[in-house]
Amino acid sequence: MAVPISTAAGLDAAAIRADFPVLAEQVHGRPLVYLDNAATSQKPRAVIDALQTYYETYNANIHRGLHALSERATAEYEDARARVARFINAAHSHEVIFTRGTTEAINLVARGWGDEHVGEGDEILLTEMEHHSNLVPWQMLAQRRGASLRYIPMDAEGRIDLEAYARMFGPQTRLVTVTQMSNVLGTITPAAEIVQIAHVHGVPVLLDAAQSIPHVPVNVQELGADFVAFSGHKMLGPTGIGVLYGRESFLDAMEPLFGGGSMIRVVQLHQSSWTELPYKLEGGTPNIAGAIGLGAAVDYLQAVGMPNVTAHELELTEYALALLSDVDGVRVFGPPDATDRGGVISFYVGDVHPHDVGTLLDAEGIAVRAGHHCAQPLMRKLGVAATARASLYLYNTAAEVDCLAAGVARAMAFFA
Ligand code: PMP
Fold first, then answer.
1. Distance from the alpha carbon of residue 123 to the mean position of ligand 1, in angstroms
2. Preceding omega of 137 cis (within 30 degrees of 0)
3. Which whole-number Å values give the CA distances from 222 to 126, 196, 341, in the listed order?
């Protein structure tokens, strides 16, 4: 694997860019400026090569075969699990369950843990800035079990009122489930404090880390979170692979969501028993190539150094916030101070519809997203139907931020 170059002063974005083939593409005759990383990240050659090597040299099903290819595939799949576990500092690699992504991980908890532990009159605490995938599964659980959702007070920039939150706990509070970084506002939530307060009341916490783990160092043991969900495709890995981290005692207390091969100990005609973690929660043939690709992505991020990734994005975010707020008529959402947030920047350009902004930018080769970003309740709170959103990653550069700001200024002038 090519080792990306990083220095004590930060990372070398130019050297990193050379590892990502798609970044050399032209779009509408212009160099691609990819600023849609909150939707999905691009993949380095090392990840693409890991997928290709698996399919070309040792493609086989895992855990069942006695032949050489199956043994190698099993070893690589389990090695990827161990690498992911080290990346987030899980106490055991069997606390890492491979899923299709964040959405499946959260649904697994809502079904497998929620159906067992949440009942009539119970309460689940969450925020109004959750992605639909950390909202809809809890609505479904609440409807199945006669429970209710309660929203933790926060301001329009996504800052949680911790004192008000601490007062929300009662005998029927069963779970706190919050994002660690908003995919709309970029706000980083005080996850460690959220967990600490919940644990005083004996209530477990799930963190939606889909936007945080790709961009900031996350140590699940230090945070003390009971469940953490994230997606491979947002952290340089393939689509269709993600992770549910759970503390062993919580995963032990869960029922499997998928019955089938690999998750059983003994199957009889009318009942079966389950095997041990992590296999109990991974019924069926998993995304073997995806897991191996995610392992390569984790290696890549670790070689760059997560603190370098964070520092680089902070610098770019500060620059982007400064440039965008200099454009007359542009309204930027989320915390104004880049140190309170990640590199997800939602904005509104005068009264131009965000889709029109996105289309104009696309004509210049700049990829941003426009829409509700799977956060309709938050859009309502912000008083808009949609926003345009630029989101940064380790391979973005200040020159690309310049292109964005110039494109936004042109959009403003075009529609004025
Ligand atoms: N939570 C957050 C904060 C997200 O940004 C996303 C992806 N946009 C998800 C959950 C869902 O992730 P996935 O679609 O990969 O399951």
1. 23
2. no
3. 21, 11, 20
- Closest Cα to atom 12 of ligand 1: 102
Q: Strands (DSSP E) along 180-249, which ranges? A: 205-208, 227-231, 242-246
pLDDT at 415 over 90: no
Using alpha carbons, select from 88, 139, 89, 145 the residue that is nearest to residue 115: 145
Rounded to whole angstroms, how far apart are CA atoms 115 and 109? 9
Are residues 262 and 337 part of one domain? Answer: no
> Do 153 and 26 share a structural domain?
no
Tell me which residue of 197, 194, 156, 196 sits closest to 177, measured CA to CA: 194
Give me the mean pLDDT over the 309-320 stretch: 97
Q: Is the pLDDT assigned to residue 212 strictly greater than 80?
A: yes
Q: Tell me, in angstroms, the distance from the centre of ligand 1 to residue 138's CA.
A: 15
Q: Which atom of ligand 1 is nearest to the CA of 182?
A: 3
- Shared domain check, 228 and 329: no
> End of a domain among 268, 303, 338?
303
Residue 414: band (very low, low, confident or very high) from pLDDT cuts 50, 70, 90:
confident
Instruction: Supply the range of the domain harboring residue 349.
Output: 13-31+305-414
Ligand 1, CB cutoff 6 Å, lining residues:
38, 101-103, 131, 133-134, 179, 183, 208, 210-211, 231, 374
**pLDDT of res. 64:** 77
**Two tokens at 157?**
């920039």
For a pLDDT cut of 70, what percent of the chain falls above it?
A: 98
Please indicate, yes or no, whether residues 121 and 189 belong to a single structural domain of this protein: yes
pLDDT on residue 3: 37
Ligand 1 mean position, distance from CA 135 (Å): 11
- Name the residue with the closest Cα to ligand 1, atom 6: 210
Tell me if 374 is assigned to some domain: yes
Neighbours of 339 (CB within 10 A): 9
This prediction's pTM: 0.97
Are 106 and 134 in contact by the 8 Å Cβ rule? The answer is: yes
What's residue 10's pLDDT? 77
Which residues does residue 197 pair with via DSSP β-bridges, in sequence order? Answer: none
For residue 366, how far is its CA from the centre of ligand 1 (angstroms)?
Answer: 22
For residue 306, the SS3 value is helix
Average pLDDT over residues 161-176: 98
- Residue positions annotated with a catalytic role: 374
Mean pLDDT estimate for the chain:
96
User: What value does the mean pLDDT take over residues 298-322?
Assistant: 97
Residue with CA at minimum distance from ligand 1 atom 14:
103
